[in-house]
Known about the structure:
Shape: globular
Mean pLDDT: 90
Helix content: 25-40%
Strand order of the largest sheet: 1-9-6-11-4-3-2
Low-confidence stretches: 1-6, 212-216
Oligomer: single chain
Amino acid sequence: MQRLFSSVASYASTIQKAISPSVCACLKSQGYAVVDGLGHGLADAYREEIVSLYKNGRMHKNSTHLVKGDQSHKLEKSHVHEAELSIGVGAAETQTNAPLCANLGQDTSLSTMLSLFMPDVKLDSQAIKLQYNEGEGGCFPLHIDSDPTIDNRVVTAIFYLNPSWQPHNGGLLQLYPWPFPPVSIEPLHGRLVLFPSQRMIHRVTPYKIQGAQGESQEGQGRCCFTIWMSQSPRAQRGRGQRTRQLPLSALQPKTSPEEDPEAAIQFLMTPQIRPHAAKMALSAEWLESLQQSHPPGPALDAVVQKHEAEVGVIKKALGRYEGIIRQLTQDPDMARRYLAWF
């Protein structure tokens, strides 16, 4: 019990010291922030609980949910296991078997500090998931955590718990702040990474454990926990933030990209359009990440077909901007003034 109380106090005080105006300024200006030195003792304690959950069969495979018409299917990711901590099936059991991690759900230090230094957002709820990657190439494809038309997640925070991580293991978090180039972040022990849930494309590269022959790899997986912080619709309305999605015709410039390239760039950087332009620009890499993340079979084939169909629709809608999209990839500074992360 003493360890539990000290860990709770340590987490809160660590977050209060770590989240500063400069961290939040970085998050708003470049779309992500990395904070190191969150305390190895604290990270060790969280990792111990996550590894115990995995070893005792209290985690389930991470899955992509595929919806087609009125049917829904799950496509499992190879070698990636997770446990719900806040809501969902198994959350109560996870809280019982991982009491230190469970207390994260009651601690609002992180959302409070972010709201304090970023007054444009008011984070008033959170959900937490624990994750264990076995190290047999487990990874995640390119994706965005949230869609404003589906849920209210605003900020994603990932805490990494990997004391033995080495560069040859892989398992990097790769952020895609398109049109700027990808950023690779190592999953170091005691590291916190923050980024906008609704606007940052990201993935996890394949993670592999490469110990000496005969060396036990049990418990050597890649561990982390993710906190998704949300802003309620009432808070959004109170701050004058518009959640309604406008039709393409209302956003598109009246002039052609050749006549007014600046207007075209501004259009492509609007939050509603930018993810689609990015998917068009990154389509080959996006496809490769899907194939790396899921086992071969009909379900993966369906995901690949869905991706290719979506890219086809995007090209049809944004084809006139293909030249501008290529220019932005080569010279992303052209878009800097129009790119907003929150």
